[in-house]
Specification:
480 residues, alpha+beta, 17 helices, 11 strands, globular
Length: 480
């Protein structure tokens, strides 16, 4: 489900995200189709503008409280990196807080805090985003600071040499200290043989050790330009006033020629791939993935139009809440797992995705037993599709997610920015519910048969090793 899985993606695979909101599962019964009007969300007051220098501006007016969320999205993430420089997008995110001539290192965050606001940034495979949440009268401050560092960032060897050590500590904390993160890293590396999604966003340690401030400078000069950026503003604002403010702050920044982005397609997988990770841990763990399509910009066949939505519904049939099949059968009834889940990303800039199953076996059970149980549930869907009750539950859940999204300014901004930066129009969300509601049991069955097959399967397992009670964490978290 688009909004739900976007947030899932941020929480699992992105770096440095900080939000003040917490997702709440709303009672599905409150959102029956009889009470819902599809146009109620599609008619949100969203306006789109483009400055002469190529900068895109999207404004959504929401006048319920005197607050504004401002986000600057750059279409530059790990997807754009090359071998030997993995992690440079995330390193540059750190360096963006190290100052300009007008705003010395650390002052960006201090000025936002002094204005009563919150700010941070995150890097993902497809983008890097910087955001602020402020009282509405403080939006000019956010624009002024962001415009300054879009064009005047100072990347010195002295500041870089200090910050790269922080990034290495963050890698140790996020990955080297966390067994399941190590499994996910190895999983991505073998699931993708040619596509850039094989590289970790935070970078391989060897690349970080050999990176220099010149690499960060090159990344900044290459990708940080108004014609490679989208500004999203959601809150108690007037769209025309925001446009005027954007022109005043960003309009004079010159565009520059961006490198050509060549299509990168993962070759067809022709057989199972497996990897075992040995690491100190309390419990084993298994992660299974199947290559799957994303939403197509211009579907050329009827299947391309509906398959991504059927895959999202399939994920909901298997996982999503206590009533879903994996939790009901494998956790409660068979007690073969302590936790299980299914997930799928329908939209990303790399136009490659994985349908994933994962779980932790119960005590006394093995990952092999859990793998068999997970695939057995997939086989049941292949044989009989989804029930009417399951389809109704999932579709009601989508509506509930949309209702919750409308209650979160930050969430609305995230969806707008993500869709635009990954190469889809924000207008895609208008048809999302209708596309999910149109999915049939036969279509769910069809995508399970087509994509969730062993020749298209990658499996990564954690083989837990004895934990040294005296061992200390290798890394530590970082905040700007």
């Amino acid at each position: 489900m688009l909004f739900r899985y976007l947030l899932l993606k941020y929480s699992k695979k992105s770096l440095n995200i900080l939000t003040s909101t917490t997702l709440v599962l709303l009672p599905i019964a409150l959102f029956s189709s009889a009470l819902y009007s599809e146009t109620s969300f599609g008619e949100a007051n969203v306006q789109e503008f483009k400055l002469d220098n190529g900068l895109k501006l999207i404004v959504q007016e929401d006048h319920r409280s005197p607050v504004v969320v401002s986000q600057v999205w750059y279409r530059a993430g790990a997807l754009d990196e090359v071998n030997g420089k993995s992690g440079v997008a995330h390193v540059l995110e750190h360096m963006m807080f190290k100052g300009t001539k007008q705003v010395p290192a650390g002052q960006f965050s201090r000025q936002i805090a002094a204005a009563g606001g919150k700010e941070n940034a995150f890097t993902g495979q497809d983008y890097t985003c910087y955001f602020q949440q402020l009282e509405k009268s403080k939006l000019p401050l956010a624009f002024k600071l962001e415009a300054d560092r879009m064009q005047n960032l100072q990347i010195t060897k002295e500041e870089y040499d200090k910050e790269i050590k922080v990034v290495m500590e963050e890698r140790r904390w996020r990955t080297d200290d966390k067994p399941q993160a190590q499994v996910n890293e190895e999983f991505q590396a073998i699931a993708y043989k040619a596509h850039p999604y094989q590289r970790p966003v935070i970078g391989w340690m060897n690349d970080l050790e050999n990176m220099t401030y010149l690499d960060a400078q090159e990344w900044y000069k290459t990708w940080y330009a108004p014609n490679n950026a989208t500004i999203v503003v959601v809150g108690d604002v007037d769209a025309q006033a925001v446009l005027k403010l954007a022109k005043e702050n960003f309009g004079s920044i010159k565009a520059h020629v961006l490198p050509a982005r060549k299509p990168q397609t993962e070759p067809t997988q022709n057989g199972e791939r497996r990897v075992v990770v040995k690491a100190p841990a309390k419990s084993p763990y298994i992660l299974i993935g199947f290559h799957a399509p994303t939403i197509y910009d211009a579907p050329k066949t009827p299947e391309q139009a509906w398959e991504p939505y059927a895959l999202e519904v399939l994920a909901g049939v298997l996982s999503g809440n206590d009533a879903a099949r994996l939790n009901q059968h494998l956790v409660r009834e068979q007690q073969i797992a302590v936790d299980v889940s299914a997930g799928y990303d329908s939209s990303n800039r790399g136009r490659e995705s994985l349908f994933e199953l994962d779980g932790t076996p119960s005590e006394g059970k093995t990952v092999a037993q859990l793998e068999g149980a997970l695939l057995a549930q997939v086989d049941i869907v292949k044989a009989s599709g989804a029930t009417v009750n399951e389809l109704n539950r999932i579709k009601a859940s989508v509506i509930a997610s949309e209702v919750y999204k409308r209650d979160s300014m930050f969430g609305q901004a995230m969806e707008l920015g993500t869709l635009e930066t990954t190469g889809y129009s924000w207008k895609l969300s208008r048809d999302y519910i209708a596309n999910i509601k149109a999915v049939t049991s036969e279509q769910v069955q069809a995508v399970a048969k087509k994509y969730l097959v062993k020749d298209n399967m990658t499996v990564a397992t954690l083989d837990p090793q004895t934990i040294d009670p005296n061992a200390k964490p290798q890394g530590k978290p970082h905040m700007h």
